[in-house]
Fold:
Amino acid sequence: MILDEKNRKNLVFLILQFFDEEGYEESLHLLEQDSRVFFDFSYFSNAILNGNFKEADDYLLAFTRPEANTYSRKMFFDLFKRKLSEAPDRSGGSEAVNIFSKDLRRIPVLKDDSFDDLVEVIAVDDMRQGIPEETCCVDKAPGRAKLCVDLHKLAESNPCLCDKLEFPSLNKSALLSLISLICPNCSGRNGGLKEDLICLILQFLYEAKYKNTLHKLEQETKVFFNLNYLAEVMKLGEYGKAEEYLGAFTDSKDNKYSKAMFLEIQKLICLQSTEWEVATPTGSLDNMSPKIKLHASVAMLAKKNPVLKDKLKFPSMEKSRLLTLMKQTMDWWTSSTCNSSSSLENVPVVSYLCGTPSSLRKKFNKTGPRKKVVNCKPNEINDPSQCNALVLPDYCSEERVARLTYSPSGDYILALAEDATHKLWTWASSQNEFCKYTPRILKENVFPKPQLHQPQSGKTMKNEMAASVQNSTSCFAIKGSYLFSTSGGKIAVFDVKSFEKVAAFGSPTPMATYFIFIPGDLLAVGLDDGSIFIHCLSSRKVKEKLEGHDQKIACLAFSRCFNVLVSSDSDGKLCLWSTKSWVKLTSKNSTRKFCTRSNHESTSLVTHIQFDPYQIELLVVHEGWIGIYEARTLDCRLQWIPDESDNAITSATYSSDGEIIYVGFRSGFIKIVDSRTFMTVCRINLTSLTQPSPNNIRLEVYPTVVAAHPSHPSQISAGLSNGKVIVLQPLWSGGWGEAAPLDDNGGYSNDSDHSY
Structure:
């Protein structure tokens, strides 16, 4: 929709008034400069009176240039002369030199010029030489005020400015009033009218290519977070702009996602000296440079951030929507608003402001609003038909599963039983199909079923057992195609493809109880005497020995964000170590902070610690409760004590996106809780989903360990007390907290075939 210049100016005046009344000052003055319909001499003169000469100079440059005419030349020259007279470094300093070399060069020499102006400038500088420095800093206001008077006279005579000095007389809140008349349906919603109007203005600014105003208005109104703009300025290396833009919407203290976004930008600043690298065609995170990974991480965090995620999608609307509305109503507005008429006859009315008729029809039907059905109380899964559940095929040992994990890419599942035997399941036709088509793995005859992997050599991966089985602790970790594992004896190294044992190291005493890999080719090994050894794998030497625990090490966790190692022992003590200096930074006793239920008061064992996917917060798992801890201080931020009927916690882990925590109980249930509020969104009764083995019927079947899929947040695997492993996933793509959608007849839909 194209408006003539007069109507375009009228629309901009309405927007300028709206900005002024709403207090969007930066957007206001940027739009004045971008549109050049109004020169705000009051703003211009205030900048001069406050000594902000660059601000005044930039504002004037938006409307005219020194070479435009004699009046413009004189205005810039007077500004230049005042700047020089107030320059602090009068004795050949850099500021005065810059004024001479840069500002003077911008002033053109016209045909009728003499050397009078230049002589005047030199005289000003010579005159300042004999004035004491402290005198130059006193009473600048009269000179600035006189300059403003002179500039106003020049502006009134300047053909570039003279017709832009007066703002038209408008009724109060003219644009809001007009919009509320045009679309009365919007005015009843809390904040709806104003937010819709802001979206209309943003679309208008985008189409008019007022980029500076557009992005400043996004920041001042906080209605729409422009992820594309953030990515653009980061790609250009303008990380200061990126931080400023992000800071307008959220603070690093708001939540863990905001904190992580600011940290990622700080990392990008550190990498700024490196060249920009292009991602490989596959788009795999593994094939991306560190810089591109950080860019992708910022985008992912924005989509998960509760402060931002609802502001990422701009409403769908017809092209030039605000211009269209103004075109329909401009004649009426001109007569009623400018002439102060109170008649509201023949006002054109529309049924919506933002959005399109088609999208509105999808959103509402005869019975009112639909979207997905979300339960107020937790979902209860007590039957195999209520979720996707698959018990992995197994003809091996029925010993209890001690450890369980997915491969880093999610193409296989690995379990370690209490009898020191490993089991590995893969998907036969293609390892990648499991990751890509995870929601459909349970549908018959669609994709190959998982199978227990057995190499042609017939070899098995079995650890050396501890002398005392009761005191043994099982642990493993994957590095590339190699598995490091122990069941109380030496640490064995297996090739996961051939199952061949390629190495073994360590000693039975003291016994290794937990180990993890740390960047830099390091392996941190916790022992049952409370010590921690840092092994360098390339040199096969011990680099450091950390001592801070009196009891056996229960778990280790590393944060690449803060470069710290956290260790926990069986007594509930947590220690924080720097991985740069290997100095102990702090320690806390996690059992003294909170009281547990009476039936768990005697149990203080920390069974697991794990950093969230963004490496900022630490999940601490006790048998009686779980807690969220600050990574750098080990202060407990949040704690959750489950119901007494749940019995002891056996395992807990974050989902791959950190949104939820899966908690396994000795009672046979898995609870799925929100990681920010610890609100239970779903409860799964594993006993009802598994059939007891005819050879080893146990009265109780419960999850001994829970593992989360590395890329699909809604999929988990649970190792069971009867030696089985079960894969679980919700029927619906909305996740575990979403109930099945209703069909048009009020029943449940038969379509459970949703893909990610």
Observations:
- The radius of gyration is 34 Å.
- Residues 5-22 form the longest helix (18 residues).
- The mean pLDDT is 80.
